[in-house]
Amino acid sequence: MSLDKPYMDVPGTTIFDADMSRQGYHLNQFCMSLMKAENRARFKADERAYLDEWPMSEEQKQAVLDRDLNRCIQLGGNIYFLAKIGATDGKSFQQMAGSMTGMSEDAYRDMMVKGGRSIEGNRYTGEKK
Questions:
Q1: 59 — pLDDT class (breaks 50, 70, 90)
Q2: Which pLDDT value is given to residue 12?
Q3: What is the pLDDT of residue 125?
Q4: In the chain, what are the domain boundaries?
Q5: Global confidence as pTM
Q6: CB-based contacts of 39: which residues, under 8 Å, 6+ apart?
Q7: Taking phi first (over 0 means left), then psi (-120 to 50 degrees means alpha), and beta for anything else, what does residue 39 get?
Q8: Which residues, at least 6 apart from 76, have a Cβ–Cβ distance to it below 8 Å?
């Protein structure tokens, strides 16, 4: 029996719910492993070998290797866990978020300082304006 998930129709948004949590469990655990210096060093020394120690899907591993954070999110990654990859690469959360939107870090910062994205396009498909 599937649950009714009316919140799933927000255009351009991946909702992190229990199903996504299950799908991304090992991806997110890999990210949390990067909190330890020795694991960051092992990952940076041979990313593929370190990723192969985790029972993630090949698609998840490739998304990490490509640093395609939007794809990681679609595959169950949680942005708060994925931030550990950025930190390992020496990137700020602002730099990561900017890259995910296709904006420069400065353009992303300026947008956020001005109040963020427009509400247009962020409503449920069935929601009235």
A1: very high
A2: 74
A3: 56
A4: 16-90
A5: 0.82
A6: 33, 50
A7: alpha
A8: 20, 21, 22, 23, 24, 25, 27, 28, 60
Say how many residues make up the chain. 129
DSSP class of residue 2 equals P
> Which range is least confidently modeled, 9-18, 85-94, 116-125?
116-125
Query: What sign does the CA torsion over 46, 52, 53, 57 have?
Result: positive
Which contiguous run of DSSP H or E holds residue 31? helix 25-33
pLDDT at 87 over 50: yes
Tokens (6 digits) for 23: 């799908």
Only one residue has tokens 């900017």, namely 98
Average pLDDT over residues 72-85: 96
- Report the C-alpha gap between 81 and 79 in whole angstroms: 5
48, 42 Cβ separation under 8 angstroms: no
Structure tokens at 71: 């794809």
| CATH of segment(s) 16-90 | 1.10.700.10
- Write the CB contacts of 25 (distance below 8 Å, at least 6 apart in sequence): 76
